[in-house]
Amino acid sequence: MRAGAPYVGSEVGRLRQVIVHRPGVELLRLTPQTMDDLLFDDLIWVRRAQEEHDEFCAALVGAGAEVLQLADLLRETLAVAQARAFVLDHTFDERVHGPAATPVLRATAEALGDADLTELLIGGMTKRELLERTDEPRSVVLHALGPDDLVVAPLPNHLFTRDASCWVYGGVAVNSMRMPARIRESVAYEAIYRWHPRFAGAPFQRWSDGLEDGQATVEGGDVFVLGGGAVLVGMSERTTPQGVERLAKRLFAAGAADRVVALGMPKARVFMHLDTVMTMVDERSFIKYGALGMLPSYTITPGGPAAAEGDVELSIADHPPERMHATIADALGLDGLRILTAEQDVHSAAREQWDDGCNALAVAPGVVVTYDRTTTSNTYLRDSGFEVLEVPGAELGRGRGGPRCMSCPTVRDDH
Questions:
Q1: Reduced to 3 states, what is the DSSP secondary structure of residue 151?
Q2: Is 55 exposed, middle or buried (0-12, 13-18, 19+ CB in 10 A)?
Q3: Of 8, 17, 110, 341, which residue is 20 to 30 A from 60 by alpha carbon distance?
Q4: Does domain 73-154 bear CATH number 1.10.760.10?
Q5: How many Å apart are CA 29 and CA 43, to the nearest integer?
Q6: Mean per-residue pLDDT for 13-40?
Q7: Which residues does residue 223 pair with via DSSP β-bridges, in sequence order?
Q8: Helix locations, 238-385, DSSP H
């Protein structure tokens, strides 16, 4: 780890610094009518979710990590004029709001202080709230909306800070998000990493900017920093093969990694990211959902002469499903993995996976944060020699994301 620089050298080395997002008004925008479009399966009791999140943060601090709140980072970033202009440019677009309403919306937002603008960007804005600040412009788009319809969509999935950006060794990927409801999340991270004083002067590389990547989508819940130059990526419902190849190419060109293992996952919401079905819990161990089975895998390495300066060709080897664990072990330089799957009936296992029983966040080798509701997985981990730090997840768990999902490590030791 380089002193003073963001760096994530593994999945399980000691966690030093992490970005999280405390639930806020954006979750109050969820209704039975909006939750599907916003990628939620249920409504969340926000006050209780905030209390649970506070306990999650306390567990991280107790484990020695500095906890950075996304909303604070964004508010502090918006104090930089160039950052504020960038965020407004990428939030108010006539392709979304129409050419008549866009200038009015932007001017209204631009007049807000940094804290109020942060709340608008994350929490959204209804037509009624807009008209409390300005006269209604002659806009077909706005005229067609009811008073409580959303003019600016909220970003409730900011709760899951793992996905829109992820740190891989000495650099960061600001990710191109697969689902329309999450695309704007990347804008905040791009601004923070460019202009926030904590990051603006720090030495790190950029693996992607996440704003114009088309079909080449990658989400952080699919990206595992295995350590020693190896990276594991799930090709899930949210991360595409194009995105994996582009990430590998940039990592190789910079000399940041020399192996990327890609797993071909089922394309289903229940398996939306790799970390919903398996996570790394120590240097050679993964907790894994039994029904995931074995997946086809691909080992990507640098190969052939560079096509141009700073470029690199890819060498790709494909492996049958029965080689999945061996392929990951090879990338780690190990003779095998320890796969941890608790014995339980198929229905109990499916419920526990849905409740994020496999979404453990390692804060040090062999020390993991989990939800208290995943009792079978927690007991199994303890019986397997792990220290398990339980946090409440009755409300947070309704969002279908666990402790790993809710954390974006920015500084983590090699293991």
A1: strand
A2: middle
A3: 341
A4: no
A5: 10
A6: 94
A7: 233
A8: 241-253, 324-332, 346-354, 375-383
